[in-house]
Amino acid sequence: MSRILLTGNGAAAWGARLAGVDYVPAFPITPQTEIIETLAGWCESGEMDGRLVLLESEHSMITAAAAAAATGVRVFTATSSQGLLHGMEMVFTVPGWRAPFVMVNVSRGLATPITLEPDHTDVLAARDSGFLQIHCATCQEVVDTILLAYRLAEDPRVRLPAIVNLDGFYLSFTREPVELPSPEAARRFLPPFEPGPVAFRAGSPVSQACAVLGGSAYSYFRYQTHLAAEQALPAYADAAAAFEAEFGRRHAIVEAWRCEDADYVFVMIGAFATKAMEAVDRLREDGWRIGLVRPRLLRPWPVEALRGLLLGRRAVVVVDQNLSMGFGGVLHAEVASALYGCPGAPPLLGFVGGLGGREIPPGEFFEMARLAREAAETGTVPPPRLLYTEAELREVRKLQAIAGARPKGGKP
Amino acid sequence: MSETKLRSLKDLPTAHLLGAGTPMCAGCGALEALHEIYDLLGGKTVFVNAAGCMTLLSVYPYTPFRGSWLYTSMASSPAGAQGVRDALDILIAKKRLPAEEDLTAVVLAGDGSSYGMGLSATSAAIERGLDFIYLCYDNEGYGNTGQQSSAATPHGARTATHAGVAGFGGEKKDLFAIWAAHRPAYAATVIGAEPLDLARKVERAAKLKGPRLILALAPCPTGWDYDPKDTVDIGRLAVKTGVWPLREYADGKLTHSRVPHPRLPVEDYLRTQGRFRHLFEPQRNDALIAQIQARVDAYWREAGVGDGAGAA
């Protein structure tokens, strides 16, 4: 094993390379492009025994990815944001083909307004598609999770495509030391893809993705995909144990940071969760018993693991880096659904922050912790809140004045 | 087409490979063409389907195909063919699959997909040099949803979205010319009512590698409003009136495999179909009929073959 400096995107490319990927249908989009450029270079030079084909859209890219997987090769692809949404018809279509492959999504805020920096509204739009969904917080996790994701996706109990998510800019372009598994160890952990009966062969014709008539046949196949997704929970536990045995690194379904004795817990996903870790450390210096819970697996949703980590706390703070218009934070509702009606369900506070890469500074975590304590003490949970400062508002007012949208010197 | 083994109708395959009992409408001109084409392409194929009438050929648990099938979406069937083709190539190159397990990828798409939503994916597949056959059944409207106007609807035809006295005001897009502009390995227009011409073209396409188009005009009893028994007659009239030129593009050259002579007036074709009835009833619309005739005349004049070729 060797330790090198890699960006999140570089780590994603290495994950695909170490997974022994045969085929990479690709389409460029910021901030994901470095992944496919890296893979294109390796395929071109022969360092990787794979074929990369540039498609003309993500819609076609995801179609080609799934069609190739359904023909029996190991497939990797990557996208981001608008690209994921452009391919969304196929994101919902291909899980039912039961042809496993891995797609990295480098999270980026969605239009409108069009932007480049990250939040999770893009990837959460794929939440109900049938893709498994795993969120990473470090570059090491990106490499490791791609290997894990193949093992999970290809597990005979599961056989579904998987999205591995990393945050644009904050993870995609951040260089961190990464321990790369050796190709031999990676191959031991992830043997060559066995397509099973799902493959197009002259000698054994199959009809794939046929129409059905009526709700009974339709429901049967939809239920089957759902039940297969649920099987990814035990399959993940097995894969993570095998991964730890091979590489010595443990990647839990739900990561917990300093939760052992915690009265209060933040819940976050992705790279911004490392900001919460930092805040937890500083709050602990001030005597708080506080921790962080970071679900890695979002689909299937690890309800039991979350209950184990969250029930019995004095209060839980969910920080959503996404926004469901007219509703609020998606993660907040997902956590609430896991805890609802359980004895010991803590007060649950919801905050939306970090949209389009907006910073969540330590002070905001301290304030959220304070509000959590207040909620625990008074028994009153405040309504969900959108994080924003007066200083930010003043800056936006200036932009609006320049844009002519507000009179100069007018009231904020 | 000097190398053809198909000299007369007697040389056409006698074994019919596509199963019967599909849910297509009686007299479906697309199914007619598909039957003829499938007899020649055979079961060592995977039909990569775009949303359209033919999607209903494979309704679980039935299929009329001896070979394989993959339904994709309305816009991305060429990309599905790309994925299948690339995967087969990779497996064979890496010796994980014996070459005899190889398949031909055949896109099966209607005009709604081929002329419209799927055109970007098609153009890109041709430009990548994808080795596949693209089979378009063109019934000149979104037939599966009740014949709304598509980019393949001819000028003046009544459709579910253009039901007024003038019919559809747009022009039928020339998909064959769009394909030819990409300089593909092969492109041809065919019709089920001319089975020998169709068979020679499919035979020729099957021998080539690269992007290949078989574009079949598909008379549609429900969409065009005529008695199902007339499908073959209407198909022949489409050729004889010059409305549907039988064309071929190969080796960088565009040719006509059949030049109608004498070319019959378009009226003979238009009168057979309810979608053009407003041209004749309650009052005859001479201006619009003349317009349609003029378009057909202009095509053959520009093509430089057949009746009127020298009239410019």
* Largest β sheet strand count, sense and barrel closure of chain A: 6 strands, mixed
Largest interface: pair, residues per side: A-B, 41 and 48 residues
Shape of chain B: globular
Rounded to an integer in angstroms, the radius of gyration calculated over CA atoms of chain A is 22 Å
Q: Give the strand tally of chain B.
A: 8
Question: Can you walk through the features of this model?
Answer:
The complex is a heterodimer of chains A (412) and B (312). With 412 residues, chain A is α/β, with parallel strands linked by helices. Chain A is built from 15 helices and 16 strands. The mean pLDDT of chain B is 96. Chain B has 312 residues and is an alpha/beta fold. Chain B contains ten helices and eight strands. In chain B, helix 1 crosses helix 6. Chain B has an eight-stranded mixed beta sheet, with helices on both faces. The two termini of chain B are 30 Å apart. Chain A binds chain B through residues 22-23, 25, 49, 51, 53, 55-57, 59-61, 63-73, 75, 89-90, 93, 200-203, 205-213, 217, and chain B through 43-44, 46, 48, 55-56, 58-61, 63, 65-73, 75-84, 86-91, 94, 96-97, 100-103, 120-121, 123-124, 128. Strand 9 of chain A pairs parallel with strand 2 (68-71) of chain B, so a sheet runs across the interface.
